[in-house]
Amino acid sequence: MRVVFKKSYDRDIDLHEHWQSRGKMAVLAIIMIALPFLVGNYYLAEAANTLIWALAGMGLMIAVGHTGQVSLGHAAFLAIGAYTDAALMNLGLPFLIAFPVAGLFAGLFGAIIAVPAVRMSGIYLAIATLAVFVIVEELVILLDPITGGVGGIMAPSISIFGISFDRYASLSNFYWLVLAVVILVTWAYANLLRSPTGRSFLAVRDSEVSARALGINVTRTRALAFGLSSGVTGLAGALMGHYIGFFNYELFSIFISINLLLVVTIGGLGFIQGAFLGALLITGLPQLIAILRDGLNANFGIDLGAVPGLDTMLFSVLLILFIIFEPTGLYGRWLKIRTWFEIFPLARRDMFRRQKSYLKTERMK
Amino acid sequence: MQLVIGGLANGCIYGLVALGFVLIYKASEGVNFAQGDMMMLGAFVALGLGNSDQLGLPFGLAVLIAVFLMFGVGWGVERVVVRRIFGQPQFALVILTIALGFSFRFVAGSVWGYTPLVLETPFAGTNLSAGGVVISLADLVTIGVTVALTAALWAFFAFTRIGLAAQAASQNQMAAYIVGVPVMRINALIWGVSGAVATVAGVLFATRGAIDPNIGLLGIKAFAAAVIGGLGSLPGALLGGLIIGIVEPIAGRYAPGELAIMSPYIIMLLVLVTRPGGLFSQVQAKKV
């Protein structure tokens, strides 16, 4: 156990509790920056993909993990971000303008949706976002001239100040670009959480009634959180569009929404780290399955490739197991293990017992 | 008129699946997103028992056994999975049931394959015509069964002991416990019943065309129906289903196809914005 000696009130809300955790972050950042020199192109592309998923996961985390608003339609915001970015760049605007505009547009759209949607709670909000998702998907097909309709649209290659950030020609540049965006967003997110706005998100999540009693405008807070959430997801969508290169509406299916939900749930609801762990899992697991499949095929003659939908099945079983046995996700599990070691002989199982709440109707409160 | 009749029968199926949602919502205030996939599984079980190239039982018997089997599946799901997350926030159940739906789809896909199959029914292809309107027997059966089932379930909740106990359990679990309602047992029972209802819906759906493991996605549309009617109201669910069933083909006729796909959700959003509790609203103002 470490004793932290606080010499000023600011230390209470510092991002890092002590210099060691600051150091760990720095080491992680340096490794991530140096990654293009350490691994080959294939894994670098995968790393970029993971980072994009983590970005999208952070977007959803603001809504689900920190404000308690479940969204089943976040793929819609990915789509809006990707299409806005690609359409603007096809008009000849530079990436540096198109990219923020894409995020802004997705965020505004999310906020507009949110104004009626946040008045609903719990399950109704989830349904409304699902409806929005379907509507956006069909709109994409309807708005043929802008989005390319069923045929799809091409995301042009990025160049900033004459330096190429193309996904294929200069992969490491693209990777650094993604990394920079992710680091910026993570930093902003972490700081948001210690600001009054971020604290009000948590208050709204934990108890709407007490948040209102403390003078928080619940509707505005939830709309703001939802707008921010969709904005960040929109940014991720724009990057995803560049990563894929050529896409149509099918890229942003309902399964993407579910996968995003998987990222935040398995990663750990309410932790920024959770979004990263979840993204790592969701991009890493298919690779692992592929490797396993080849191994089984070569060594035992078992052909898993003949079973369609195995990935989805594995994901859903994993999700069920996590919801039942570890609702705090991977990061929550890690915290438990770490605490067990830190206070070694003193850890007790009930330290982390979940409080059960008995259900009362939402209909007649 | 032809459109309306076809829409009516379609709407009945949405309504039936929506009934399953409402059942579970009524009893445990949770939403089972796997309802559509339960419908799909029910249809496939009936197909596996009844089709001549599979087990080849008579149609009536096959449906009956399928209904009982799916009652068991619904009951088992509650016992094995849902009960474990008792007392956790609602969205845990949402995510859980979505994952369950994917598992059902995988099971059906690996047993019966992903190519569409046709269920053999005694009333396929028979048409009745009255006053220039042609009604297929399948549509007529669908409408009849739906109305009967809705009435029966409504009576169950309104008049029987178990039905009333289920409502009590949904309104305040703790209080229901204290007055001696076996909340867990009732939840399991209701899940079973909703599995059975889903099977009926699945069989009726299968009489109107081929089925494949992805028809479970129809559940989302049925969900819109349940919301339009107001979650927690059985006649509301049926009405919502009918509205969607009728609006969809009409929108498809007079507007681009994408708009027809969007129409249920647009109606749902409109209802949610104007009457957040649905048409048969049961939400009352929150008091602290």
Structure description:
- The complex is a heterodimer of chains A (365) and B (288).
- Chain A has 365 residues and is mainly α.
- Chain A has one domain: ABC transporter involved in vitamin B12 uptake, BtuC, CATH 1.10.3470.
- Chain A is built from 14 helices and 4 strands.
- Chain A has helices spanning 19-38, 41-64, 74-90, 95-117, 122-142, 144-147, 171-193, 196-206, 208-213, 218-244, 254-267, 272-300, 310-325, 329-342; strands at residues 153-154, 159-160, 163-164, 246-247.
- In chain A, strands 1-4 form a two-stranded antiparallel ribbon. Chain A has a two-stranded antiparallel ribbon with strand order 2-3.
- The longest helix of chain A is centred in the C-terminal third of the chain and has 29 residues, at 272-300.
- The radius of gyration of chain A is 21 Å and the shape is globular.
- Chain B is mainly α and 288 residues long.
- Chain B has one domain (2-216).
- In chain B, strands 1-2 form a two-stranded antiparallel ribbon.
- In chain B, a hairpin with a 2-residue loop joins strand 1 (127-130) and strand 2 (133-136).
- In chain B, helix 1 packs across helix 9 and helix 2 (35-50) packs across helix 9.
- The mean pLDDT of chain B is 78.
- The interface between A and B is large, with 52 and 59 residues.
Question: Can I get a quick summary?
Answer:
The complex is a heterodimer of chains A (365) and B (288). Chain A is mainly alpha-helical.
Give a topology summary:
The complex is a heterodimer of chains A (365) and B (288).
Chain A: H1 19-38, H2 41-64, H3 74-90, H4 95-117, H5 122-142, H6 144-147, E1 153-154, E2 159-160, E3 163-164, H7 171-193, H8 196-206, H9 208-213, H10 218-244, E4 246-247, H11 254-267, H12 272-300, H13 310-325, H14 329-342
Antiparallel strand pairs in A: 1-4, 2-3
Helix pairs in contact in A: 1-7, 2-7, 2-10, 2-11, 2-12, 3-4, 3-5, 3-10, 4-10, 8-10, 11-12, 11-14, 12-14
Chain B: H1 2-28, H2 35-50, H3 59-80, H4 90-112, E1 127-130, E2 133-136, H5 137-159, H6 161-171, H7 173-178, H8 183-207, H9 218-229, H10 234-254, H11 257-274
Antiparallel strand pairs in B: 1-2
